[in-house]
Design brief:
Helix content is 87%, strand content 0%. It has 509 residues and is mostly helical.
């Protein structure tokens, strides 16, 4: 099996692992830290995530440039590029430390007004450790980018899986022994240093990579940043999408509210991971079709094919969560959040799923934009509306807390995606009207019937995990049978048969 195929398999394994372990580990961490300290932990993490944007997309740029120099067999150019980027990272790390000191001494005390003195002390300690972590992570992550540029995917991805499993087990041990949030960030920093050293050794010893400045040029630096600009813009979009709410709520709300908001976002992000795993593998196909000058109708056919697969999976997850998700959240983290907190976290997750469904279903559209190098419009549009959505959410949060904050954000998401549909239709020549018509053909009938039957399944008497699992199993069978016989077209049925046949063969072995 090639490095590319192994890398893709390990990528899916990582997605499944992080989601499953995240679901299992979250209530454990929450119960040991408490909702207040967990909220501080999430909020300071979001603040550090904001400062991490100072890398300006350089790590992603490394992958592209290293691959380019390797294809051109320009060893000298590669050495010069890597040495230049490391010099840039050194300057950025110094800037991170300087900004961190300013935030530590002048910002945290005055900004988080709803935290008491003890909570502020915890927040500042976590922040100080994470700033050090970030300062070494930025140049450290470059070595992983080099591996990808060399198409050496197996080592860094396997190392990441080993790290995730080991870190999860260590977190359980540390919390069981009485550790708190500060212990967790120290643990993450130690793991980070170890992983950087191992990856660095692999890059220098195994890949025989060398760093050397043959010629320093401002023009060359501008070329590097010109490529990384749009990566940076999309990183800003992600920041306003997922993290800006923590800043707003951190200013006006108690740490417990931050925990509710964070749990809701976590559930929403799990929702998107499965669909992204499907659509992300189709970028090469989109590139091939664009190079071959595929027509708008041909691109629409592919978008429909991928979109329907994503839609079926997403509608199963969404409808099941809408029907039984509140019971799940209560069982999952209800002891710490309480009934009201669990309900708010469930509402936030539902809101994210509603707003997130269309962008996920149309993920192939983004792959087409990448292949055609037409991401600029989407980047500017998203960033503008995400900022407006954050401002709108901040006003709503004053009266409605975490739910108000999310309401402002998803309003922006929905507006942006509708604008993008007109852009796809007018500029990319995708037949959006046909896309929606064929997306909903058959599937909508199966979904409505499944939802109605699922509503009655909710009346199965009982409480607890056994009752929830019983409902989930019943609904899975109902949804699968209805979708197969009513909602799927022949192509989708063949995929389903191949998948189930493969699984049964493995079970028999």
């Amino acid at each position: 099996m090639s490095q590319l195929k192994k890398g893709a398999f390990l990528n899916y394994a990582t997605i499944i692992l992080t989601n499953v372990v995240g679901i299992l580990l979250t209530p454990f961490i929450l119960s040991h830290l408490g909702s207040s300290e967990y909220g501080i932990y999430l909020t300071i993490g979001a603040l550090i995530g904001t400062i991490s944007l100072l890398d300006f997309g350089l790590n992603s740029t490394i992958v592209r440039f290293v691959a380019k120099y390797r294809a051109e067999k320009d060893r000298k150019g590669e050495e010069n590029f890597l040495a230049t980027t490391m010099l840039l990272f050194f300057i950025i790390s110094l800037a991170v430390v300087a900004i961190g000191l300013i935030f530590y001494f002048f910002f945290i005390d005055s900004y988080f007004t709803k935290m008491n003195l003890e909570e502020i002390k915890i927040a500042k300690t976590i922040f100080g450790i994470l700033i050090f972590n970030l300062a070494i992570s930025m140049p450290g992550a470059a070595f992983t980018g080099i591996c990808y540029g060399y198409e050496s995917f197996v080592f860094p991805k396997t190392l990441n899986i080993v790290r995730y499993i080991t870190r999860s087990l260590t977190v359980v041990a540390v919390l069981t022994l009485g550790g708190k949030a500060i212990a967790l960030v120290i643990l993450d920093t130690v793991f980070n240093v170890v992983i950087i050293i191992i990856t660095l050794t692999f890059v220098f010893k195994k890949l025989q990579v060398r760093f050397k400045i043959h010629q320093f040029s401002i023009k060359f630096v501008k070329e590097i940043f010109s490529y990384s600009t749009w990566i940076f813009v999309f990183a800003l979009v992600g920041l306003f999408q997922w993290q800006a709410g923590h800043w707003v709520l951190g200013r006006i709300s108690a740490p417990e509210v931050l925990t509710i908001y964070g749990i809701g976002i976590a559930l929403g992000s799990y929702y998107g991971a499965f669909s992204t795993a499907i659509s992300s593998v189709f970028l090469p196909r989109a590139t091939q079709m664009s190079v071959a000058n595929a027509t708008g109708e041909e691109l629409t056919d592919m978008m429909i094919k991928i979109g329907r697969l994503s839609f079926i999976i997403l509608m199963f997850i969404f409808s099941a969560f809408f029907l039984y998700g509140l019971q799940f959240v209560n069982l999952w983290v209800g002891k710490t959040l309480g009934e009201q907190g669990s309900h708010e976290a469930w509402v936030i997750a539902v809101m994210i799923m509603v707003a997130y469904t269309l962008p996920l279903v149309q993920g192939f559209g983004n792959s087409i934009l990448e292949a055609k190098a037409k991401l600029a419009f989407k980047a500017i549009l998203y960033l503008s509306f995400m900022i407006l959505g954050t401002i709108f959410g901040a006003f709503l949060a004053i009266d409605y807390g975490a739910i108000g904050m999310m309401a402002g954000s998803i309003t922006a998401w929905i507006i942006v995606q509708n604008v993008m549909n007109f852009y796809y239709h007018k500029k990319i020549d995708l037949n959006i009207w046909r896309f929606f018509k064929e997306l909903l053909s058959k599937t909508s009938i199966a979904i409505v019937i499944a939802f109605v039957l699922g509503y009655f399944i909710n009346y199965i008497p009982g409480q607890g995990w056994l009752n929830f699992i019983s409902k989930a199993v019943c609904y899975t069978l109902v949804f699968s049978i209805l979708m197969y016989h009513i909602g799927m077209i022949s192509f989708e049925k063949e995929l389903f048969k191949k998948a189930t046949t493969g699984i049964l063969k493995k079970i028999k072995k």
